[in-house]
Amino acid sequence: MHFFDRAYEGTPPWEIGRPQNEFVQLEERGEIRGRVLDVGCGTGENAFFYAQRGHDTWAIDFSPRAIGLARERAATRKAPVHLQVASALELGRLGETFDTVTDCGMFHTFLDEHRPVYAASVAEVLRPGGRLFILCFSEKEPTDWGGPRRVTESEIRTTFAAPWTIRWVRAARFETRVPEVTGYAWLAALERPTARPSPALP
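Now predict its structure.
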């Protein structure tokens, strides 16, 4: 059984029963725009929040168990979110495009070789000028409790170098159910460049 399926036999520490505050603030500031895809959605709290705020929302997770739980919650809440088992490394298979992609705690799970694959995968479904927001544990988070890999700001900037536009990377907080986890994190705002016009013919 996959690690994340096993995690969802109980309640994983990252499932806090509500959307992550960093994404709530982004939406309230108008940063979350148009049609939204939430990657690594877990049981769907962020996606349900986007839908509640009027966004046409899709959400994917690699764990069938997580998506099953999310579908149960969506039915109970009457949340109009399209939930699907899918890999964040193969988003082109969705056959859809989005104005905003959000990643809450997925980027820090990737091996080094997966990072450029992920960046290319997101670019396939993100419309030109669309935005990707990533929340991941930073290197400032203590390692004595284990958990996922820590990520440096430079690693984010290297993964999303040109032609991506890095709008900003700032210190943030990743909320969990575990009191001893401080949750030091990076929140990154990345933009897919708009297509350049073809040169004018003479």
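The chain has six helices and seven strands.
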